[in-house]
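Good morning N.,

You mentioned wanting to compare the apo and holo forms, so I went ahead and generated the holo version with phosphoenolpyruvate. This is what I fed in:
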Amino acid sequence: MRKPFMAANWKMNKTSRETEEFINTFIPLVRDISDVDILIAPTFISLETASRLLKSSNVLLGAQNVYHEESGAYTGEISPDMLIAAGCSHVIIGHSERREYFSETDEVVNRKIKLARSKGLEVILCIGESLEERESNRTFDVLSGQLSGSLADLSLDGITIAYEPIWAIGTGKTATDEQANETHAFIREWLGKHRENADRVRIQYGGSVKPENIEGLMSQPEIDGALVGGASLKPDSFAKIAAGASGK
Ligand code: PEP
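and this is what came out, ligand included:
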């Protein structure tokens, strides 16, 4: 049995004050959901505020990115130790926006995951194809390449995969439930061929998830949760999404 895992990726949204307002409203809404792991990933600058407010709640804290060196002359970067000291248990690595706007390659993603895991952070690894890659029937090749590059020399311990078709992120277009499930099944099959314990890995779907479509997605056997952007910015919306995974 894989426990559903719902994660909020706030991207570059919310000040520390807005983070505080969100959390104070959100915690009571999800207090009784014990069969779903729920995580919030605010910006770096709000992590300590969030950590203080989430203490003794059932909501986990994650960061949206991390650097692949431990310390030193890397202006503007944040290390795994800093994230842990700020209260994070998780970090999102390899989001398509990092890959596109900050030129992160699978090799960089792999270095980040290795260092994060060596420090004990759990990782949400994002992979996904573009519209052009899907339309030219290259989805499975692209995903295989991202998995083998990002996971090189790594076990699956402490890793969640977020399958996020780039064409569905922030666009309002969602993969159909069946399309998403088929791709998740492919990812699990790839993991099973190349690593141990693939059946234990949680695979989240990401791409315009909202309260209206979460139940259909979660009814699919290979979908273990969601990584949610836009619809995680309002407490009632993200609480409904988390509740939509309860009972799976
Ligand atoms: C994301 O960026 O991880 C994401 C899935 O965004 P949205 O839910 O807004 O499509």
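The radius of gyration is 17 Å.

Happy to go through it together on a call whenever suits you.

Best,
F.
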